[in-house]
Structure formats: C-alpha cells, structure tokens
Amino acid sequence: MTNVRIKAVDVYHAKKQVDNDVYLEHFKKQGKDITNFLNIMGRKKRYVIDNPKENTITMAIEATNQVLKKAGLKGKDIDMIVFSTQVPEVTVPTNAMFIHNAIQAKKGTVIFDMNANCAGMTIAVEQASRYMKSNPHVNTALVVGSDYLSLVADPMDAMTYANFGDASSAIILEKTESDIGFVDAMFEVDSSNRNNILYPHKGLSQTIKAGESAESMLWLPFDGTMSLPYTYEMFEVILERNQLKIDDVDIFCLSQFAKVNMDEIQKHFDIPEEKVIYVGDKYGYTGTSSPFIALHEGIESGKIKRGDLILFWTIGGGHEFITMLFKY
After folding, report:
1. Which residue range forms the structural domain that includes residue 291?
2. pTM metric for this prediction
3. For residues 129 and 181, is the Cβ–Cβ distance under 8 A?
4. Pairing outcome for strands 166-176 and 3-13
5. Are residues 161 and 245 in the same domain?
6. What is the rounded CA–CA span in Å between residue 44 and residue 281?
7. Is the pLDDT score of 138 beyond 80?
8. Percent of the chain whose predicted confidence (pLDDT) is above 90
9. Residue 227 contacts by C-beta under 8 Å, 6 or more apart in sequence?
10. Facing residues of 309 across strands?
11. What is the CATH number of the domain that holds 243?
C-alpha cells in the first residue's frame, strides 16, 4: 500500500541570536518587568533577522537548498512545492514561485502558497501527504514553512517583540511502499476568537484606503490555556481511532509557542521528558515552522529514529488546531 514518508528535513535561521537581557532592558524602559512572561513562554534566546537582504523567501530558499542536498535531490526531482507563511514577502506572485525558480524545478511542478498562520506548515504536510496518495503523478513534494515574524512584532508588546524568532524549515515528502509515513490527522476550529490576533489589524482594504501603514501585529491578551481541553480531546480521539495509546507515541513535536502549554500537556498525559522536544529556548517562537524545527532537532540529536511514531500538534490564530500522526 502506497504511503508518504518524510525523506529529509532541514532548517535555516537568521544569524543574529538575541538573549533575554536585551528585551528585559527594552521593556524596563517602558516601566514593565517581563521576567515572568519570558519564564512562562520558555524564552532564553531567539534568532532575529538583522540583514536588510533577508526575508521570508530568502530564508525559505536557504532551507530548501539544504534539504535538497541532504536528500540527494535536484529541483527537477520535485513534483510539488507548497510554501507556508503568514508573513509573505509578496502576495503576487506566489512565494512558491521564487522557490521554484531558485531550484530550477520543472515546468509541470504543482506549486502554491498556503496560509493557516502558525498551523500552516503542519497542515501543508497533511494536505500534501493526502494529495500525493491520490495523485499518481506526484511522487516527491517539497513543503517549506517560513516566517519573518520579527518584521511585524510590536515593540510595545512583549508577546510579539520578545517572543518571536525568524526561521524556516523545509521537508521532503516521498512515496513509499514500506510501513512508515503519514498515519492520520484531525482538526479543531474555534472561530469565535478570530479577532484576537490580526494583521493588518484594520484589514488590508481599510489600511490601504486610509493611506496607513500596517507596521505591527495586533495581539489582544487571552488565556493561552484555553487550547488545552481541545488538545487533550484531540490526542485521545486520534489515538483511539488508530488503535493506539499515548505510550505508543515515541516523540511529541509540538507547537513551540509557550513552554507552559507543553508542560501542561506533558503533565496531563504523564509523558516522559525525553519524549518531548523543546527548541523554543534558543529559536524563539518561529510560527509555522516550529513543530518541524523540533523534528529536525530530534533527528539531529538522535532522539528520533526511523520507525518512530511522532505526534505533531500546533495551533493557528483564530483558533485552529491540528494534530497529526506520522511514522518517521
């Protein structure tokens, strides 16, 4: 039976790494002490673009070149390119077009951009996997997630300014007849929170018509733990419908948004520390790519091995959740 497996994954991040002291001092000048906030979010350092020539697309091209080299592939070997971002460098043409050109992919390649905010790359991998299983002509896919989040961070808001990092991850999916690869995925959407996180916060049409700039993301305070009941239920349902138990999962690659949420998930299911990969202390929160940066870290460190069952979980603004099972 044909399935879709992860052939290779790689990561590119901005060169400048900034520690907490810079942000503590920045907000101290505003009369704010964000020490507790940084502890809750699990931040120590983050990579931030300081090169005027770098952006969402250039990071994605770097990650793509690295993963192609790792997989021993050329651009002509790729049948499908999916680009996930919530900070597109351009809206026309697709950002995927620039990846296609950079790797000199063939003319028959399926390409498109996808925006599901921070859940984007995980959903893109799920969608690409299901599409590949149904399309006999698409055997190899490149999925790239890239967010230049510091570009839209609000210097007056710790949630964005002190939290975000800039990075990209690229993954190669390929068809396989072996007993590994995509297992299942499920979604949960709560659209009642659609106005909590906005960019541009007045909408593109009103911003342009008013002649205003859309400099930073609007992030209204909300209780992040609201996601946990959904999360617990999703884990239980997806495992049950695949005749699995929580102990059958070898590694958890979760959203790196808030360490406190990861700790609560771990505590709720009594998951051993070594099964949960955390990279948010050195990368910051990288948005769409964060679960796959965790995947890359797990593979590089030797924690993740071929045949391991991985549970991915992440959340996008609004909110939308995805949980995905993948046998690496």
Report:
1. 182-327
2. 0.96
3. yes
4. antiparallel
5. no
6. 5
7. yes
8. 88
9. 261, 315, 319, 321
10. 327
11. 3.40.47.10
